[in-house]
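Q: How would the structure tokens look for this protein?
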Amino acid sequence: MAVTLDTTGILEAAAFWVSNKGGSNGRKLYFYFYVMLTLLSILLGNNPVILSKTAFLAHYTSVAGVEPMPWLMSEFAAANTASMVLFIGNPTNVVICEGFSINSAAFTAYTLLPFIACNTVCYGALVSQYRSQQHIPRRLHTRVENDPLWVLHDPTSAWVGSILLGAAFVSCLVVSVFEIDVWKISLPLAIAKFIFDIAWDHYKFSRGMVPDSGEGLMMEPPNHEPQIQRSLGLASLPEYQFTTQRAELSTSHRSSEDALQTAPKPSAPRTLITRLPSWLSMLYTRFHLHFPTCFTALPRLPFALVPFAFSQFILIQALDHQGWVNILANWLVKATHKDMYATTWLVGVLGVILCNVAGTNVGATILLTKVVNAAALPSHSTRAAAIALAVASNIGAVSFTFSASLAGLLWKVILAKEQIFVRQRDFAYWNCLPLLVMTVTGLAIVCAEMAVLYQSSGA
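A: Here is the predicted structure in token form.
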């Protein structure tokens, strides 16, 4: 639902609305973008925001004539910090909720205060290290403005998608209190959104609301717009003229037909096997023209996450089978003496470190979840460890290596396509201060929460 919502242009519209509000004031614009990215990451999760906003910011900073690194690092930090609020914000949250039997409403209640604290100190750290005019100028030389409605190319789908996504969030939070599996609510809503997208695309196609062939005015040469914008479904910035994805696909369709018509006929008769690739390509193009929303959103879904998560579970299960999980659990008991505060800090710090060396934050979360459960800690210490791990697995993505999270790997690939190459040492350098202050602040807030919840009850 989040990915198909992005294809409507609503996220780009929100970005341009924020840009217009910020005007040419660099500091105000930096703050507005940070708040917007934080809110979007709470609602949609970190990966959809990284996928849709990284390329946008790369082009935005290029047009505005400012250094891209402060804005891109702000986006990366905001997205991965805000993903700790809802259990669907990050795959690690799902692992923690399932592993420690925490319902989604309780998870949000536990992580809300740590998130606010981490998000606030993270912004302070970012502003502090990018305080010079070189990084964030007080006045932008080129003011980037645009009408948000111009990039919102499908308002009806945006409204329906927003309503269904909001209904899914509220319903999942409510039913989790009654120990009902949230997928029983989210899956029917996702299917409803899929059916709507199919029906709405067909309606627009049959009514001629979008061109179904090479017709339709092209506002620019087909190759003028960068390829990454077309592949991500992003709107262009003002230096480019806006084109609809349908018009681009139509031109591609028309070019492929012209090429087939003008191509020299083979000397030998074409068999079914030789005709199959061109036939499949033509069929794919026709369906893409007829159902652009689904054919744009499906390739962007995180299908690669499924085998990756399975492999992480298999590796951790192998460690458990060999007895390493029990060994680590014994070390945890000896190091903390089952003390709630010691457990909070040790699990939290280990979570941040292991994100860099244990197969992203997903692998680190799976491993530490099994270790804490095997340690047979008191209930209050186990709950403290779970919330500390939730904080660590999210802020741990803002770490020293790109492989600390799937979002980091995705972020690096998108920037490379935009000809922005971030070195590993620069990534670690700019994340060092935000990660340090977020770790200390976030775990301190978790300790305070546990003190209020359990010491007052005599635990």
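The two ends are 42 Å apart (CA to CA).

Residues 212-260 have pLDDT under 50 and may be disordered.

Upvote if useful.
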